[in-house]
Specification:
Helix content is about 40%, strand content about 20%. By secondary structure, the chain is an alpha/beta fold. Strands 1, 2, 3, 4, 5, 6, 7, 8 and 9 form a 9-stranded mixed sheet that branches. It has a 7-stranded mixed sheet with strand order 14-13-10-11-12-15-16, sandwiched between helices. The relative contact order is 0.12.
């Protein structure tokens, strides 16, 4: 049985000019990381695509699932390795095409190994004629369309076996991981912030996360388990992540006792932004990310978002600003964060909710509302209380590295006694 091969294509990296090699190297690294634990024979880059050759016994289904999460891959296909012979190419092309339904088609060939006796045009012509004859013999109404085919059968002549494929699988698209700089994402337990994180990771950003939590109304209702679940899920897309957990209830109580009621939510958020900014600088991040969607709740009017963002000097990215809730929930389902965010938990922001929250605040109003607070001390309190958890993708699973480190410290202490 021939060893399986996957052909992975990228698109946007074409636009990178002289920087293209940097991005393709990052994509190759991401493919290797994603396939850890699956026996890979080689990852090659003939031309503007990647060939992933697997060892015998490798799970193609597992590879498909993992490659589908790799940012930078626009589409990919499981190719049939066949003998370098025109008759074998025709037979393999028919096996690929026969189950598909289409009204027009084309054959496209690439020959990275010039020792093959037949040229590209000859391959395309002979295989195309063979397919057309077979299709018409079955009574199917199809035509050849070289400009805009509904289905394209692709043939790759490589130094090894020839490759034939016709069914493309959509990839995650975007840019490869760790090509867009570091950011810090304020991760709540809801749908929005996890989707916002995904959108920025899709653009190559490398994210750390900060989660603010309060005491649950009932045992087990704290939001920490949800934030941890979201961070673990998002680690699948960038292979490593940090999650900072910040206890926030004491800071909230200080705000409630000393600040005007209508500004509470906005002052919570300004304090969160300041603490997140300090933690971001520790992680060498250059910007903050939030899940704000314009007009979705009272704190997310344009005026309030501007007033909250004014509390920090670091740029704030809001990738969901123009996205409605249905679109956000749909994407949450697609990326695997929906069920995690749907778990019951106690969210800290609605605690001590004002009866009439301010809708159109200004930065100077919020600065005046904070006048009675020792802002610097509260930020220091939040940063000092933060606990960092680390996650790492290994062999298809996300591991809690901080738990491993804690276990190692305990073992070292025990052995020294």
């Amino acid at each position: 049985m021939p060893k399986p091969v996957i052909v992975a294509h990228y698109h946007e990296l074409w636009l990178k000019g002289r920087n293209r090699r940097f991005f393709t190297r990052k994509l190759a690294t991401a493919l290797r990381q994603s396939l850890q634990g699956i026996p890979v024979e080689a990852i090659e880059q003939p031309g503007h695509r990647f060939l992933i050759r697997f060892c015998e016994g490798a799970s193609v289904e597992a590879a498909i699932e993992r490659i589908g999460r790799v940012f930078g891959v626009v589409n990919f296909a499981v190719a049939r390795p066949v003998e370098r012979d025109i008759d074998a190419l025709c037979a393999a092309a028919w096996d690929e095409v026969e189950p598909l339904r289409f009204s027009s088609f084309a054959v496209r060939a690439k020959r990275s190994d010039k020792t093959f006796a037949h040229g590209v045009m000859e391959i395309e012509s002979k295989v195309g004629r063979y397919l057309l004859d077979k299709l018409r013999a079955e009574g199917r109404s199809v035509r050849v369309s070289l400009d805009d085919p509904e289905m394209t059968c692709r043939i790759e002549i490589t130094p090894g076996p020839a490759l034939v494929y016709a069914r493309k699988i959509p990839g995650a698209g975007g840019l490869p991981p760790k090509t867009g700089g570091r950011m810090m994402c304020l991760l709540s337990g809801g749908y929005d912030s996890a989707v916002a994180a995904y959108q920025m990771m899709k653009r190559g950003a490398y994210l750390s996360f900060v989660h603010f939590y309060g005491t649950g109304g009932m045992p087990g209702e704290s939001s920490i388990h949800v934030a941890r679940g979201l961070a673990r899920r998002l680690t699948l897309y960038q292979f490593a992540a940090k999650l900072y957990r910040v206890p926030f209830e004491a800071i909230q109580r200080e705000i409630v006792s000393l600040a005007p009621e209508k500004f509470r939510i906005l002052l919570y958020r300004r304090m969160m932004m300041r603490i997140a900014e300090q933690l971001a600088r520790r992680s060498h991040a250059l910007a903050l990310v939030t899940g704000d969607s314009l007009g979705q709740v009272a704190s997310q009017t344009l005026q309030n978002m501007v007033a909250v963002g004014d509390a920090v000097r670091m740029p704030v990215f809001r990738p969901l600003a123009g996205t409605d809730k249905q679109e956000i929930v749909s994407l949450a389902r697609q990326i695997g964060t929906y069920d995690i965010s749907s778990e019951p938990f106690h969210e800290c922001c609605p605690a001590f909710m004002p009866r009439m929250p301010a809708l159109y605040s200004k930065p100077k109003q919020l600065e005046a509302a904070e006048a009675a607070l020792d802002v610097g001390a509260l930020v220091h309190q939040g940063v000092k209380a933060a606990i960092c958890e680390r996650f790492r993708y290994t062999d298809g699973q996300v591991e809690d590295v901080s738990a491993e480190e804690a276990g190692a410290k305990v073992s070292a202490a025990a052995s020294s006694q």
